[in-house]
């Protein structure tokens, strides 16, 4: 067993093919243009990195025309930085245009020739993954048809898998002729399939098939293997014999396991939405994430690692740890993976490393790389165009030395809380220990102090914290009086929060013109007082500003660096708050946002639109005031992530689309299936506003951390709005 559990890393580096087009994750995240990313990787404290030397990149057009100009300086720099390289040669790809996974004659030999060239050029690289996740890639490319060559039959699946296994065997043989030290780190995504009794045959087959890649490499697929006859029936017996006669066992098995890797098959289709219905040609069943339905939950990562060790007895590395969720949940999953590996190592299982994956985030995996999709931040967030450090960096540095962890990383993840269950619960047989619930899902850590218990934003942040299992205290003006420095001090000292969110303040824009001093006190002076007291105690703060700090004269949406010029008292109060807090010492985050809407609070424009239209009433909305509407749940999640990351300064947080109020109202009507003809676009002056408003004040960001699209926000609003349904039932 190695001396210590190592921390490895890896940037998501897939180059896959859809039809005649290749999709490159390094292009999507910008890593192709940033050699300096490698310095950031080194600062994470990783011992090794899974890094691509991909066949598709090096020799895209002809096998004898290799371009090393991009990879040479990067591998050289990694070596200078003291980071060992685990070279990947194909990553969810099917090779360059002149081959593919069903090229029985050429794929494996071509990959082996590429491997030989890599080994000759970089003889100091001692670890290789010639093909990443061959079983998973074969499923997605030749059984499900998502990726090239887009086949959907089982014979093609097995051919694709055998060609990749041959590619691994021949590649390692070629590499070892040059570097006898070279080790094979063979990865795959492995989970377990559970099912109802009616579809246990399919589940049983899945649970044998999941090991097929490693079984083949280890020489286990002989005539006594349960898959031999099944695969041989496709005319592939000679291929199986050749592999069994010359196996290539991994030196390290790389287990990739995600929170959704364990599956559950259920013949009772009515219990699940149509999108998860499927079948095997003989039976129909729903295929869902086991964590979302089973009670007690599946054994998950720890169970898979134990099974892998029991089956092979080969050293194991967790080769991908990533959770596309909120920052706190990302940290909890990272910490749990590390703690699980350390625990199993203490019990005698040869765990070598934990690999923090998706260092630069990943794009389009929600569409399985088949179409443009969403970006999920990783350890570094590149949504703003350049890498931004997240709280995961601090956790990575803390793990190997067992240093203190961020307060939000110390509580149970969603997969260990009741919110994990999305479907009717299915009870599974399990030992008594597995039926024991966590002693408490309430995090035992310093809280976030939230001001604004009676307001939309305060309630939303409290709800967001409850959902995310973040310890928090929600208080109103009786619990902390921002006019009184002693009250502020007492509250901070009593609750000892790790962060303060000031969601209180004056919200009546028109009334501010009549009572300006009250507005200034609530929005600026009190907020500055609170932030100063927090700074004295080294407590970060989050405050909120508005699009009304601008005058509307710009030709494009405002970004964080644009100069404010408020038109009314409300805007001036927010600008005073911004300037006052920015001048203070300490860590202060200020989020400018606009035009809140939420289905969970009745006091917002979108709910007013839906209420009026549901009653058949006309609704007047300004056609000459352009804003960027902001869905409050999206705002809360992103702002909490930034707070956890320790970000400071001004950030623009909206759903990043410019709409007039009238256009916004029509979009709400369309999403709810209501009549947009009842919406009456009118000039703002017809609505009787007392305070002046900027005609054009949409917000955009130059810093990243973008919220989801306005289309996604409106769909979410419509799905969660209970008001319309109740009013329709009452009318009926």
The strand order across the widest sheet is 1-4-5-6-7-9-14-15
Residue stretches low in confidence (pLDDT < 50, at least 5 long) are none
Oligomer: single chain
User: CATH superfamily of the largest domain, please?
Assistant: Glycosidases
Structural class: alpha/beta
First-to-last CA distance: 71 Å
* Number of H- or I-type helical stretches: 23
Report the mean per-residue pLDDT as an integer: 95
Q: Briefly note the CATH topology name of the largest domain.
A: TIM Barrel
Largest sheet: 8 strands, parallel, barrel
CATH architecture tag of the largest domain: Alpha-Beta Barrel
Strand percentage lies at 15-25%
Protein name: dTDP-4-dehydrorhamnose reductase
GO biological process, one term: carbohydrate metabolic process
Family: Belongs to the dTDP-4-dehydrorhamnose reductase family.
Pfam families: RmlD_sub_bind
Topology overview:
Layout: E1 6-10, E2 15-18, E3 21-24, H1 25-29, H2 37-42, E4 48-52, H3 55-58, H4 71-80, E5 84-91, H5 107-121, E6 127-132, H6 134-143, H7 154-178, E7 183-189, E8 193-195, H8 200-209, H9 212-217, H10 228-245, E9 252-256, E10 263-266, E11 277-279, E12 284-289, E13 294-295, H11 300-312, E14 316-321, H12 327-346, E15 351-357, E16 362-363, E17 375-376, E18 380-381, E19 388-389, H13 391-398, E20 426-427, H14 432-435, E21 448-451, H15 456-467, E22 472-475, H16 485-495, E23 499-502, H17 516-536, E24 541-546, H18 569-582, E25 588-593, E26 596-597, H19 605-614, E27 619-622, E28 626-627, E29 630-631, H20 632-645, E30 649-652, E31 659-660, H21 661-672, E32 679-682, H22 710-720, H23 723-731
Helix pairs in contact: 5-7, 6-7, 7-10, 11-12, 12-13, 15-20, 16-17, 17-18, 19-21, 19-23
């Amino acid at each position: 067993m190695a001396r210590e559990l190592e921390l490895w890393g890896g940037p998501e580096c897939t180059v896959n093919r859809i039809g005649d087009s290749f999709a490159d994750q390094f292009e999507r995240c910008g890593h192709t243009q940033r050699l300096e990313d490698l310095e950031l990787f080194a600062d994470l404290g990783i011992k090794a990195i899974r890094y691509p030397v991909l066949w598709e990149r090096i020799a895209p057009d002809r096998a004898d025309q290799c371009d090393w100009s991009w990879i040479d300086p990067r591998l050289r720099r990694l070596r200078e930085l003291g980071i060992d390289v685990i070279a990947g040669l194909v990553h969810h790809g099917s090779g360059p245009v002149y081959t593919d996974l069903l090229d029985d004659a050429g794929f494996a030999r071509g990959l082996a020739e590429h491997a030989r060239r890599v080994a000759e050029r970089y003889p100091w690289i001692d670890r290789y993954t010639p093909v990443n996740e061959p079983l998973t890639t074969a499923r997605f490319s030749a059984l499900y048809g998502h990726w090239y060559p887009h086949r959907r039959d089982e014979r093609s699946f097995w051919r694709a898998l055998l060609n990749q296994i041959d590619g691994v065997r021949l590649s390692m043989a070629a590499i070892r002729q040059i570097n006898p030290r070279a080790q094979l780190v063979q990865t795959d995504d492995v989970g377990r399939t559970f099912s109802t009794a009616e579809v246990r045959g399919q589940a049983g087959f899945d649970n044998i098939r999941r090991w097929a890649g490693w079984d083949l490499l280890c020489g286990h697929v002989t005539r006594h293997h349960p898959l031999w006859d099944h695969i041989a029936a496709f005319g592939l017996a000679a291929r199986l014999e050749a592999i069994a006669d010359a196996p290539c066992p991994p030196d390290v098995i790389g287990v990739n396991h995600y929170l959704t890797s364990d599956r559950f098959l259920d013949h009772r289709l009515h219990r699940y939405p149509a999108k998860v219905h499927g079948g095997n040609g003989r039976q129909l069943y729903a295929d869902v994430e086991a964590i979302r339905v089973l009670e007690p939950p599946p054994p998950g990562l720890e169970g898979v690692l134990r099974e892998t060790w029991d089956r092979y007895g080969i050293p194991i590395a967790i080769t991908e740890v990533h959770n596309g969720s909120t920052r706190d949940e990302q940290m909890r999953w990272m910490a749990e993976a590390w703690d699980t590996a350390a625990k199993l190592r203490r019990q005698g299982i040869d765990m070598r490393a934990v690999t923090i994956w998706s260092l630069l985030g990943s794009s389009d995996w929600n569409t399985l790389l088949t179409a443009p999709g969403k970006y999920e931040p990783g350890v570094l967030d590149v949504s703003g165009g350049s890498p931004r450090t997240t709280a995961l960096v601090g956790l990575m540095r803390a793990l190997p030395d067992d240093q203190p962890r961020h307060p939000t990383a110390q509580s149970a993840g969603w997969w260990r809380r009741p919110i994990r269950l999305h479907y009717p619960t299915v009870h599974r047989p399990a030992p008594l220990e597995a039926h024991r619930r966590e002693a408490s899902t309430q995090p035992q850590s310093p809280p976030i102090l939230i001001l604004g218990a009676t307001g939309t934003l305060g309630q939303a942040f409290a709800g967001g914290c409850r959902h995310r299992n973040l310890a928090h205290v929600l208080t109103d003006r009786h619990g902390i009086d921002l006019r009184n420095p002693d009250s502020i001090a007492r509250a901070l000292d009593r609750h000892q929060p790790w962060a303060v969110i000031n969601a209180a303040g004056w919200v009546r824009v028109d009334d501010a013109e009549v009572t300006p001093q009250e507005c200034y006190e609530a929005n600026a002076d009190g907020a500055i007082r609170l932030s100063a007291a927090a700074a004295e105690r080294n407590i970060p703060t989050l405050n909120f500003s508005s699009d009304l700090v601008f005058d509307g004269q710009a030709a494009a949406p405002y970004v964080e660096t644009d100069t404010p010029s408020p038109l009314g008292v409300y805007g001036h109060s927010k600008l005073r708050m911004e300037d006052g807090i920015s001048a203070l010492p300490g860590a202060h985050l200020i989020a400018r946002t606009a035009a809140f809407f939420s289905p969970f609070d009745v006091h917002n424009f979108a709910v007013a639109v839906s209420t009026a239209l549901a009653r058949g009433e006309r609704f007047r909305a300004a056609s000459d005031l352009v804003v960027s509407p902001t869905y409050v749940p999206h705002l809360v999640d992103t702002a909490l992530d930034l707070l956890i990351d320790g970000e400071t300064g001004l950030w623009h947080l909206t759903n990043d689309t410019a709409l007039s109020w009238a256009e916004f109202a029509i979009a709400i009507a369309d999403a709810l299936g209501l009549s947009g003809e009842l919406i009456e676009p009118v000039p703002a002056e017809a609505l009787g506003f007392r305070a002046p408003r900027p005609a054009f004040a949409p917000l955009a960001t130059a810093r990243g951390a973008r919220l989801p699209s306005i289309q996604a926000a409106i769909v979410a609003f419509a799905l969660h709005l209970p008001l319309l349904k109740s009013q329709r039932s009452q009318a009926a």
